[in-house]
Write a structure and sequence with these properties.
The protein has 2 domains: about 1-170 and about 220-250, NAD(P)-binding Rossmann-like Domain (Rossmann fold, 3-Layer(aba) Sandwich), CATH 3.40.50; about 190-220 and about 250-320, Alpha-Beta Complex (UDP-galactose 4-epimerase, domain 1). The longest helix is centred in the N-terminal third of the chain and has 21 residues, at about 85-105. It is an alpha/beta fold. Helix 2 (about 55-60) packs parallel to helix 4 (about 85-105), helix 4 (about 85-105) packs parallel to helix 5 and helix 6 (about 190-195) crosses helix 8 (about 255-270). It has helices spanning about 10-20, 55-60, 75-80, 85-105, 140-155, 190-195, 225-240, 255-270, 290-300, 305-320; strands spanning about 1-5, 25-30, 45, 65-70, 110-115, 160-165, 170, 205, 220, 220-225, 245-250, 255, 275, 285. The strands form 4 sheets. A 7-stranded parallel sheet has the order 3-2-1-4-5-6-11, with helices on both faces. It has a 3-stranded mixed sheet with strand order 12-9-14. The chain contains 10 helices and 14 strands. Strand 5, helix 5 (about 140-155) and strand 6 form a beta-alpha-beta unit.
């Protein structure tokens, strides 16, 4: 049995679907504060909170767990700066709670949802897994600290882990069953949709004077289904006795903010004009993933490589949400 903590969320629910398609038995553990119960369409559901040790104990007692996913985290970078205590308790302390119960029950395999935010402002692009890691906000710091916890637990207790560092997760399930539903919504593509449909009064791109071809930031967009496939490969790696690993998950290419806006216009057929504002502190001109390692070691290759194809899946989901 595979335990998916945070399996009612955007990426966790997609991973749950892919695992069940591959024949794995799953149980989703989620407090539903930011997740959606209707997204738990596969496996079993246990409503619980990582802040409550008794909840974690109960799910490990009720089910024979072989491997754990941890997707549960607060993810808003700006909010983490304003409310760091909230992030350190929820992301870091609660993960320690989970690891403690795993140890008690003899479960030594975990796959963790990390972020490109652990790199902070990169020294070079594309970014490789071993490049300098220097987060610039508490959200990235919590993920980086957990990565270091895994290293220490691996040495001391034999924990085996795969850490996936996501770049810009986006898109929706091609079957129309799952997609993004964040409250509040902070991701670029769904926010542009909201503006295009008149649900936001304005849309501001932060910075148009970067050292890039069109002056706006370039980011690496990776489709949620591609992420899910990588996680299935991570499961097979660990269950087959593989060693602990860190992997970047991106598309290996990038699109600027202006290019994303144009893709949305093309896909939706809605004309609109965005505004440009000042850069945000710490924003890099380019954030691109080197994905050579995950390709070579797990045999993973992203299927969605064109931003228009990613936007199409997201738009189909957006229309369905109305």
């Amino acid at each position: 049995m595979i335990l998916i903590v945070g399996g009612a969320g955007y990426i966790g629910s997609q991973v749950n679907k892919f695992l069940n398609k591959e024949g794995y038995e799953t149980v989703v553990f989620d407090n539903l504060k930011t997740g959606h119960e209707e997204a738990i369409k596969w496996g079993r559901f246990f409503k619980g909170d990582l802040a409550n040790i008794a909840d974690i104990e109960k799910v490990f007692t009720d089910y024979k767990i072989d491997l754990v996913f941890n997707f549960a985290a607060y993810i808003e970078m700006g909010e983490s700066v304003a409310e760091p205590e909230k992030y350190y308790y929820n992301n870091l302390v609660n993960t320690l709670n989970l690891l403690s119960v795993m140890r008690k029950h003899g479960v030594d395999k975990i796959i963790f949802s990390s972020t490109a935010g652990v790199f902070g402002v990169p020294e070079r692009v594309p970014i490789a897994e071993d490049d300098r890691r220097e987060p610039i906000n508490p959200y990235g710091q919590t993920k980086f600290m957990i990565e270091n916890v895994f290293k220490d637990y691996g040495l001391a207790y034999g924990l085996k882990y795969v850490v996936f560092r996501y770049f810009n997760a986006c898109g929706a399930d091609r079957d129309g069953e799952l997609g993004e539903s964040h409250q509040p919504e902070s991701h670029l593509i769904p926010r542009i949709f909201m503006f295009a449909q008149g649900k936001l009064p304005e849309f501001v791109i932060n910075g148009d004077d970067f050292d890039t071809p069109d002056g706006t930031c370039i980011r690496d967009y990776v489709h949620v289904e591609d992420l899910a496939r990588a996680h299935v490969l991570g499961v097979k790696h660990l269950l087959n006795g593989g060693e602990s690993k860190f992997y970047n998950l991106g598309s290996g290419s990038g699109y600027s903010n202006k290019e994303v806006v144009e893709a949305v216009k093309k896909v939706t057929g809605i004309p609109f004009e965005v505004k440009f504002g000042a850069r945000r502190p710490g924003d890099s001109p380019r954030l691109l993933a080197s994905i050579d390692k995950v390709k070579a070691e797990l045999g993973w290759e992203p299927e969605y490589k064109k931003i228009e194809d990613i936007v199409k899946t997201a738009w189909e989901w957006e229309k369905k949400k109305k």
